[in-house]
Sequence to fold (226 residues):
Amino acid sequence: MNLFSKLTDRALVYYDNSPLVVQRFTKNIIRIVFKCIYHIGTMRASSKLPIRIFLIDSKDILYISDSTRNSDIFSKYFSHGTVLSGDWDKKRTLLMDDTMYKFGEDVFLNGLPYESTQFYKEVMDQQRERYIKNKQQLETRLNNWKILYNSIRTHGFKSQKSLTNSELLDEICISIDRDGNKILEDGRHRFIIAHLLNLKDIPVIVNRVHGDYWSRHKEELLSGSF
Fold:
């Protein structure tokens, strides 16, 4: 493990154990810093999709980006709206093959205990989520996710902006591949809930668009449809 990973691990553990007021202050500082980075990137980029909310059917997303599965939590701040060619869109997994998605099915829909799921076993045995250090931390996070599931099931899915007046970058992020397929980039917990509940009109922002798709559908994207 390199020095950056060690420092990140320590920072995340400190964040988890901090009072709520400290967590909120930290999130606001991070948001301000990366908002500045985003605006700098916007000025330097030659072709960007403006920040806007698109409403999509949760069933339209079939893939999850490997960057999301590997907890690349800051990617959306660096690459939002980027038009990018290459093979980045091939680094993905079918949503229904993701162990966290299967956890949601097993626990939320089928009522299975945490301990019987593949995701729980992976985290405990392999520390798949590097910021999880013990059983108590893991179960606290899973309990919070279950509370969120019950809330969305009861009250419906609401945008982060309507709930907290937060920046648009806190919404679920997706990318669009060369063929127009939508790939989940960020907001995995919220999106999995929406998908399990078959919800429509989910607010998302577009993180990256493949250059091939952009060249064919630029006007649609800029007009707010795809």
In short: The first helix runs from residue 3 to 16.
